[in-house]
Amino acid sequence: MKYAIISGSHRPQSQSGKVARYIAERLITLHSEASSEIIDLGQTPLPLWDEGIWQGDPKILDAWQPVSARLKGCDAAIVIAPEWGGMVPAALKNFFLFAADGSLYHKPGLIVGVSASRNGAYPVAELRVSSYKNTHLQYITEQVIVRQVNDVLNEAEPQSDDDASLRKRLDYSLSVLAEYAKALQTVRASGVLNRKEYPFGM
Ligand SMILES: Cc1cc2nc3c(=O)[nH]c(=O)nc-3n(C[C@H](O)[C@H](O)[C@H](O)COP(=O)(O)O)c2cc1C
């Protein structure tokens, strides 16, 4: 299985990026055949979506097409959403406008909220309300919230009980995601999906 790990922070050196790298390593440890693509929106920012994409404007297309190709090669996505002002960062919402091109179509998604304090639930709620309609990303019911992110996932071994229980929860959620990744391959191959007639959710 191949996983796309999307780090939603604008910051080039973000804690969300740290979480993304931890998850990429964990996927390989848990599932020897797994591989991943980290799409870090802080390190490789996308331009703001604009309608030039419909006219094939190279300014927009050249930035998006390589990302789209990487997503298309994946079976599942892990969306890392730091809480900024009680919201999902604008870069991540912008990403979902681009990703309505079918690259995440009926693939399972795991949401990972991130907070430097004790929050992190708002981005989870926001993604579950928006972001899936036109991408058709199928968020699984498991979700992870990384609280006190500066204090966890820093060393090879857990440094506290909270660090240990978070790692256990992440492993569990990644294992559930792996099963959905297999299951939704069947859905995509079933012939029942009709993106041509229904590209946009209702
Ligand atoms: C503009 C901005 C707004 C933020 N607002 C919140 C917030 O509402 N709640 C919260 O728990 N943390 C907030 N934080 C702190 C982040 O949780 C913290 O930066 C954390 O490391 C995740 O962001 P990162 O991936 O950019 O590092 C905010 C950070 C920034 C840069």
How would you portray this structure in words?
By secondary structure, this protein is α/β, with parallel strands linked by helices. The protein has one domain (2-189): Rossmann fold, CATH 3.40.50. It is built from 5 helices and 5 strands. Strands 2-1-3-4-5 form a 5-stranded parallel beta sheet, sandwiched between helices. Strand 1 (2-7), helix 1 (15-30) and strand 2 (35-40) form a beta-alpha-beta unit. The longest helix has 29 residues, at 161-189. It is globular and about 50 Å long. The mean pLDDT is 97.
Rg result: 16 Å
The span between the termini is 30 Å
The proportion of strand residues reads 15-25%
Q: Briefly note the structural class of the backbone.
A: alpha/beta
The CATH topology turns out to be: Rossmann fold
Element order: H for helix, E for strand: EHEHEHEHEH
Query: Total helix count?
Result: 5
The helix content is 25-40%
Q: What is the CATH class designation?
A: Alpha Beta
Can you tell me the CATH superfamily?
Flavodoxin domain
Largest sheet, described in full? 5 strands, parallel
- How many domains? The number is 1
Count of β-strands = 5
The dominant shape is: globular
Q: What would you say the CATH architecture is?
A: 3-Layer(aba) Sandwich
